[in-house]
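Sharing in case it's useful to others searching the archive later.

Someone asked me privately for the predicted structure of DUF1295-domain-containing protein, so I'm posting the question and my answer publicly. Question first, with the sequence:
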Amino acid sequence: MVHTLADCADFSKTVAPFIPQLRSFSLQLVGAWADPQLMKDLYLLTNPLISAFAFSLFLFPIFLLVSEVNRNYSQVDRMWSILPAVYNAHYALWAYLQGPFDIQLLEERRVLKGFGGLSLQAKKGYLKTAKVPTGFEQEDLDRGFVVTGLWSWSRHPNFAAEQVGALSYIILFQASTWFTESISSEKYPEYAEYQRRVGMFLPKLGTSAPGNFTGQTKEDVVKSMADVAKDPIKEKS
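And my answer, the predicted structure tokens:
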């Protein structure tokens, strides 16, 4: 049972107590397979995270077998556009079948209403006995905006941090691009010519050579690469 927000992030309270259900769920699933009502009862009595784990374990040998048969080990990648939706639908279905939470919703409204009323009352009372808090100056409060701390170095430190996060995400794909290029260069002999003709991200405008050389033979491509190696000026002519 969780009572606080910190409890919700505690593995020992939210996950560990339900791990034994994984074994019992698998065993009971075999016996309840032919009875829809038993299946529903088993589904509702099992923690949704545990039944999601069981589904993942069910998929594991299937992906492994298909990968070995096809000699292609990217089977999970093929299902990646579908599996997140399946898991989300699973959690939504489990919550829906558990029934309405009318009492909880009413209690939440009462708590929010009470909290809002107390906040307004506290603000009204504070206006009568307002004092400048320790560490602040009346000038800072009268100004209406912050000019100290992080805001003495940047007018929008929060936006700056968000942009740094986006930049870090871009750097991740820079590394992935380099890795992909290195693999393709080793695997495909003509990839070097393709790199010469086509830019990595943006069109290469400094050359008149078209990017599509599907009509050329492999010998033509190799000859073109040799000609450029001898006279790099030809690439720009």
